[in-house]
Amino acid sequence: MAFVLSSCGVAYADDVAVPMHHDGKDGVWFVLEEAQRLNVLARLAPLKDTKIELLDEQLKLAKMEIVNVRIAVDASKELVDLWESTARKIEKRADAAQAKLDAWYRQPVILFTVGALVGMAAAVAVQ
Hints:
- The chain is mainly alpha-helical.
- The protein contains three helices and two strands; from the N terminus they run H-E-E-H-H.
- Strands 1-2 form a two-stranded antiparallel sheet.
- The longest helix is centred in the middle third of the chain and has 70 residues, at 32-101.
- It is rod-shaped and about 145 Å long.
- The model is unreliable at 1-6 and 8-13 (pLDDT under 50).
């Protein structure tokens, strides 16, 4: 990782990097600001790793939430089906009850006619 950071620094500060040899090792001399920037990047790397882990965990939680929402939607659809079925049954019962109320022998005209006939028959029978 240090190689990646240092190579990025070399690419960024190509005009200020000077190759050198020190204690039997080849290296590059940087301007102080570039070295400080690389130092900051090196210190931020673990934080970025932690951020990536947290984002991965957040993604897992979001996926779990999506699954939970889908389960809730499916349960809601089942409840809708149940309520619609119940409403159809109630409507069918109401229609049957209304049909009984609308029977021909319950019509006011029929009841009036039957009452008039019974009344005339009673009047004839009394005389």
